[in-house]
Amino acid sequence: MKASIRRRLPLLVTAGTFVVLFVTAGIMYDGFFSSRVFVNLFTDTASTGVAAVGMTLVIFSGGIDLSVGAVIGFTSILMATLVEKHGVHPAVAATAALALGAGLGAFMGMLIQVFRQPPFLVTLAGMFLARGGAWWISTESTEIKHPLLVGLSGFAWEPGGGLRLPTTALVLVAALAAGYVLAHHTRFGRNLLAIGGNEQSALLMGLPVAATKIWVYTLNGACAALAGLVAVIYSGSGNPSQGIGLELDAIAVVVIGGTLLSGGRGHMLGTLFGILIFGTIQSALLFDGRLGSAWLRIVVGLLLLGFILLQRLMLGRADRRS
Amino acid sequence: MSETRLQSFCRSPVVWPLAGILLLVLVNLVHDRSTAFLQVTVTDGHLYGTLVDILNQGSRCMLVALGMTLVIAVSGVDLSVGSLMAVGAAVAAVLLAREAHSVALAMTAALAATALAGLASGLLVTWVRVQPIVATLILMVVGRGVAQLITDGNVIIIQRAGFEFLGNGYLLGLPFSTVLVVALYLGAQVVLRRSAAGLFIEAAGDNETASRFAGLAVGRVKCLAYMTSGLCAGLAGLLAASNIRAADTLRGGENMELDAIFAVVVGGTALTGGRFSLLGSLVGALLLQTLTVTMYNLGVPPAVAPVPKALLIIGVCLLQSEKSRRWLGGLWSARKAA
Fold this sequence. Notes:
Chain A has helices at 2-7, 9-28, 35-44, 46-60, 68-85, 90-114, 119-137, 147-154, 167-184, 187-197, 199-204, 209-235, 246-256, 268-288, 293-321, and strands at residues 142-143, 156-160, 163-166, 237-238. Chain A is mainly alpha-helical. In chain A, the strands form two sheets. Chain A has a two-stranded antiparallel ribbon with strand order 1-4. A two-stranded antiparallel ribbon of chain A has the order 2-3. Chain B is mainly α. Chain B is built from 16 helices and six strands. In chain B, 47% of the residues are buried. Classes of the chains: A mainly alpha, B mainly alpha. Chains A and B meet through helix 7, helix 13 and helix 15 of A and helix 7, helix 13, helix 15 and helix 16 of B.
């Protein structure tokens, strides 16, 4: 019983932090305690959240991907240009965007696995590639007028009780659910954690290390492209500068969720709470209105620092005990 | 068999980036069908020309690459340099906005701030034992936020004669920023190679455990490396602000981290740490600046500039990887056998 609590401690700390933050914001700002604000936590962070789901899987394996923000920008402007300027059907354009994202991910995974290059360097180069590609397509943002995409923007599922779940929130919830199943109820997810824990042992156990690592970057590339599609639906336009700095937000969300940055330990539910914490800070800053966007960066950075310190503290204690 | 001078030159880390620069210059000459690219004229006792411009505009990346070399040599990496450039520029700009503050005071304050930020990264890495990427990523994000906070998110115009000299002045006919960087390089070379400091850095990066058992204060060496990197980034931020006579906290120093890492990697310092070459990094930074100028010359829009850069980085990394070396080596020995 005690051991299981200790194992779940990072998750409990994250959940507790969210409750404290949400209640504090609710007391400080009028109208914060409402189902609309709560749903907005999902809607406003949908793009970051979907990227964070993929990032969680990559970090499970002990890797990191700095290219997600740029892939979001690339997908966003590619989608808008294909649909608005070339008359391509949105479904076809979306498929192409997802395939390109997955392709870039697979390419980076291959460089990392086959040529033994450090993940941060390869994905940093991938970030330049995707952002340069996005600005190559267009440096101006393009408004989306296609009826299908406009319809998706305005659509919301109303399960009753005054709840309105827009498309972007639904996509985020679906991505989280899929990520949860993939991470904790499939062989692939267990392989990821095993590789992140100790790659050498995983190799000796006969796990398909190379294939798993390439697949996880491919999957993350597709996730980032999906996040880009979400951004298009959310903002109603394609913008090549979308998602600058978003990779750090995604990493922060994952780490705040209690996932170990060195890999091998973590939980997808933690990422859910990480997204909620991130959304709460964003909403609170918006409600306050006096504090600029610079503060979001600072608060997220400090929160990231705080949770890393906490992880070190708990890990240090666990190491001493064993 | 003793090595000839040519052989040892071919193995020096400077050869590859130097060859790259020559290739790019050749591309420009062929594209222009004239020697305009190489022309250097003397006006008012100052040198003018594209090559001088490369030296001037490339000096910031050269400076950041110097600090980055030391951090990478102790098997770390510093992603915060771009943000720290913005912090340095912001601190100096805010202080210089008041006539009462002297240029020296503003610059000292700016450099102290960025050196302190570098020390913070160093402590996170050595004391808290956070991975270098993550520790400096935190500084990168918080730093940019703090810089924007200092200037209220505005671009601050700087109008002080003494400060403008830093990025626009000339000394001995050469741009002052270039002279400054070369002087710093020579100073660093003397300090690192004439004392045991360079050896300490290489030892700490090569094998941390062994160095610790040998009695080396690895933590202190690493902290000093990160501090130096912060200091270099701050000075580069001042050069940039002086060059455009303004502090831009939103975009100042943007993407500098990758440029500097690239310059270091191309210059022959392995990302795994250990042996390093400051001169290699300087030449690597010049290669990057030459690439940028070449792309402008060929009419590539500035927005697309990241693409060829990224491709070059991937290419260089692949060439340096063990796998492709073994593969190329195999080709070589197969031809010898035939």
